Amino acid sequence: MSLPRFAITRIVCPTDFSDASDVALGAADALAASVGAKVDLLHVWAPPISMAFDAAFVPTPEQIVKYTTDMQQLLHERAARFTLPKGRVDTSLVQGVAWSDLIAHAQKTAADLIVMSTHGRTGLAHFVMGSVTERVVRASPIPVLVVPAPRG
Question: Distance between CA 123 and CA 130 in Å, rounded?
Fold first, then answer.
């Protein structure tokens, strides 16, 4: 009896535009080039809401438009760094909760693999902020390749 074949044709690679996620982009680029896969570069965002004492500051529709335009520009800049031929890198901007909407997007696009980084947070920072990567690894029905954050 032979093992089932695992083919990688589509990779979802989330980015938060940090140095750590840039390392994962490099890994996704190299892996996609070696197996002939497409990459979907994804940024999941939530509206930037500020809290102060008993008040919340919600962005205006104009601020949301500017924010999403800026995020699209950053996605296109990251996509331009890939060595893959034109047409093999897509960009997606999704509003929602990072870990769950990343998984939903990967399922919707029939991704075979998610390639993402860690931020290397430990202790209190990890406890307070949690780990998107950890939640994705635990909940995703799609395999996840985790690329460690750069040290130092």
Answer: 10
Could you state, in order of their start, the residue ranges of all structural domains in the chain? 10-147
Strand pairing report for 50-52 and 55-57 = antiparallel
84-131 residue pLDDT tens? 998 999 999 999 999 999 999 999 999 999 999 987 555 444 443 458
CATH 3.40.50.620 for domain 10-147, yes or no, is yes
In terms of Cα–Cα distance, which of 9, 6, 23 is closest to 146? 23
Among 43, 26, 146, which Cα is nearest to 90's? 43
Task: Give how far the C-alpha of residue 47 lies from the chain's centroid of Cα atoms, to the nearest Å.
Answer: 17
